[in-house]
Design brief:
It is found in: Cytoplasm; Nucleus. The protein is α/β, with parallel strands linked by helices. The protein has ten helices and five strands, in the order H-H-E-H-E-H-H-H-E-H-E-H-H-E-H. It has a five-stranded parallel β-sheet, with helices on both faces.
């Protein structure tokens, strides 16, 4: 099912007028799941097979944190280390800028996988306020995984990732934030019939099969 949805969204649009209309509104799939659920890995595989651009909210925030002269760098750093959710205005501004820059460079790139967003109600309300009528959210791709598996994966990743939040103390905070803040957002989209769930507790290849054969 997900395979067909992604295929339909990534086929070439024959009508120049219709394509222009789509370019005006980015086609978005939100990708959600706990830390370590494999969102980034699976997004990279989807990008290989479909005409999508992967935007990771976390990666954008970490890049902004490291950018010399950033007025938000220290603020972002403190939120990430504490496992808290960065203020929505910062995140949406980075996402919108990334989408605009991508579409300006190539008019055919108007399909986006937005990974790790929206993470709470404030994120969702902020997105609605800023992006209402400016982007079309097709559905939520939810990678479902137990907290224990997520933590184990992140600790293993932390041995080589260099990420300051891949440690047990930060991970436990991030898991609690995810359960308390992000899962209700997923439930909200489920009520709208806009969630496609994939079992992310198995190996990378098996999860990929779940994406394409769901």
């Amino acid at each position: 099912m997900i395979f067909h949805l992604l295929s339909r969204l990534s086929v070439k649009v024959p009508s120049v007028v219709y394509r222009a209309a789509l370019i005006m509104k980015p086609q978005v799939v939100f990708v959600l799941g706990g830390p370590g659920a494999g969102k980034g890995t699976q997004c990279a595989r989807i990008v290989e097979n479909y005409s999508y651009t992967h935007l990771s909210a976390g990666d954008l925030l970490r890049a902004e944190r490291s950018r010399e002269g950033s007025e938000f760098g220290q603020l972002i750093d403190s939120y990430i280390k504490d496992g808290k959710i960065v203020p929505v205005e910062i995140t949406i501004n980075l996402l919108r800028k990334a989408m605009e820059e991508t579409m300006e460079m190539d008019e055919k790139k108007f399909r986006f996988l937005i990974d790790g967003f929206p993470r709470n109600e404030d994120n969702l309300q902020g997105w609605t306020t800023v992006m209402e009528g400016k982007a079309n959210v097709k559905f939520v791709l939810f990678f479902d995984c137990t907290s224990e598996v997520c933590i184990d994966r992140c600790l293993e990743r932390g041995k080589s990732s260099g990420r300051t939040d891949d440690n047990r103390a930060s991970l436990e905070k991030r898991i609690q934030t995810y359960l308390q803040s992000t899962r209700p957002i997923i439930s909200l989209y489920e009520k709208q019939g806009k969630v496609r769930t994939v079992d992310a507790s198995c190996g990378v290849d098996e999860v990929s099969k779940g994406v394409y054969s769901h």
